[in-house]
C-alpha cells in the first residue's frame, strides 16, 4: 500500500468548499472522482485543512492510500486530464506510510487580499475583497504585532467551532501594500495582502482577523484594541467575518522527517 501526497491549487469560486458534503460540488468530491476514474475504484482523500465556499488554494495538500503502481511522475498529468479547469494538481510525491496531509502538517500560510482602490478590478474581483474607501495601512500593521505568539484565539473563531482548544501559535503576521490599482494614487488606496503563518487555524479565524483589521484600517478601532480583543476570548469583541473570496491557502509545511520536497517533484515532472 502506497501513500500518495498531492499539491493542489484551485479557484474556489464555484465550489461549496473543500470538504465533501451531501449535496456534492466540493473540491474533495472532484478530486476523489478524478482518482476513481483513473484507478477504477473509490479512494478517500484527506486534505491538510478545510476551506470554505468561495475560498481558494495555491498550495493545498491532500493524501490518500492506494495499491496502484502508477509511477509517481505520472499522477499529476493523469489527474489533471480528469479534473475541471479550476482544479490543478501541481505535483505528486510518494510519502511515508504514516504521512497524513492534516495530522502531519506543522505550519500553514494564508493570504487575505484587500483592494481599496476606488473602483474594483474586474479581472481580480474573485480573489480580493473590494473596500472602496482608503485604509490606514500603518495602523493595520501596528495592530498585527499583538497577534504574534501563542494565544487563545477564541475571539477570532466562529461560535460553531468544534475544536477542544482554541490555543494556536502565529509565527508571522504581515501586511504588504501595492499602491495604485485603478490609476488613483491617493494615500490608503491599492491592493494589500494580509499574510498569516501559524501552526494551525480555527474555523473562520483568518477571515475574522481580516474583518477586524479592516475596522482598524477604517479608523473605527485603534491598533491597541487588537490586544484587548484577543484577551476578551469572546467572539462578540472582534470585528465581522470578512468575505470568503479574498482568502487563499498559500502553503502547508511538513517536518523534514516526511521528506516532502515539492520543488523537486515539480522539477521532476518537467
From TrEMBL:
Keyword terms of this UniProt record: Isomerase, tRNA processing
Domain Pseudouridine synthase I TruA alpha/beta: 8-102, 145-254
GO MF annotations, alphabetized: RNA binding; tRNA pseudouridine(38-40) synthase activity
Entry keyword annotation includes rRNA-binding: no
HAMAP family, A to Z: TruA (MF_00171)
Coiled-coil stretches noted in the UniProt entry, renumbered to this chain: none
Catalytic activity: uridine(38/39/40) in tRNA = pseudouridine(38/39/40) in tRNA
Sequence positions that bind substrate: 110
GO biological process: tRNA pseudouridine synthesis
Name of the protein: tRNA pseudouridine synthase A
Gene: truA
Source organism: Cohnella lubricantis
Amino acid at each position: 500500500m502506497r501513500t500518495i501526497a498531492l499539491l493542489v491549487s484551485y479557484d474556489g469560486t464555484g465550489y461549496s468548499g473543500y470538504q465533501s458534503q451531501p449535496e456534492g460540488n466540493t473540491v474533495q468530491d472532484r478530486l476523489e472522482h478524478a482518482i476513481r476514474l483513473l484507478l477504477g475504484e473509490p479512494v478517500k482523500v484527506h486534505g491538510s485543512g478545510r476551506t470554505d465556499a468561495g475560498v481558494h488554494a495555491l498550495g493545498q495538500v491532500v493524501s490518500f492510500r492506494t495499491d496502484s503502481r502508477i509511477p509517481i511522475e505520472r499522477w499529476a498529468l493523469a489527474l489533471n486530464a480528469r479534473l475541471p479547469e479550476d482544479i490543478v494538481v501541481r505535483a505528486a510525491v510518494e510519502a511515508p506510510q504514516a504521512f497524513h496531509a492534516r495530522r502531519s502538517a506543522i505550519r500553514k500560510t494564508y493570504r487575505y487580499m484587500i483592494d481599496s482602490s476606488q473602483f474594483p478590478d474586474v479581472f481580480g474581483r474573485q480573489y480580493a475583497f473590494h473596500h472602496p474607501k482608503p485604509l490606514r495601512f500603518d495602523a493595520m500593521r501596528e495592530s498585527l504585532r499583538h497577534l504574534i505568539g501563542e494565544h487563545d484565539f477564541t475571539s477570532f473563531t466562529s461560535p460553531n467551532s468544534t475544536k477542544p482548544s482554541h490555543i494556536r501559535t502565529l509565527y508571522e503576521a504581515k501586511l504588504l501594500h501595492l499602491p495604485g490599482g485603478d490609476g488613483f494614487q491617493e494615500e490608503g488606496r491599492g491592493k494589500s495582502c494580509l499574510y498569516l503563518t501559524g501552526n494551525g487555524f480555527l474555523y473562520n479565524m483568518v477571515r475574522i482577523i481580516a474583518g477586524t483589521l479592516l475596522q482598524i484600517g477604517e479608523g473605527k478601532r485603534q491598533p491597541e484594541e487588537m490586544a484587548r480583543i484577543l484577551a476578551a476570548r469572546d467572539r462578540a469583541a472582534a470585528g465581522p467575518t470578512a468575505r470568503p473570496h479574498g482568502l487563499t491557502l498559500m502553503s502547508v509545511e511538513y517536518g523534514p522527517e516526511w521528506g516532502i520536497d515539492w520543488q523537486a517533484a515539480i522539477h521532476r515532472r518537467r
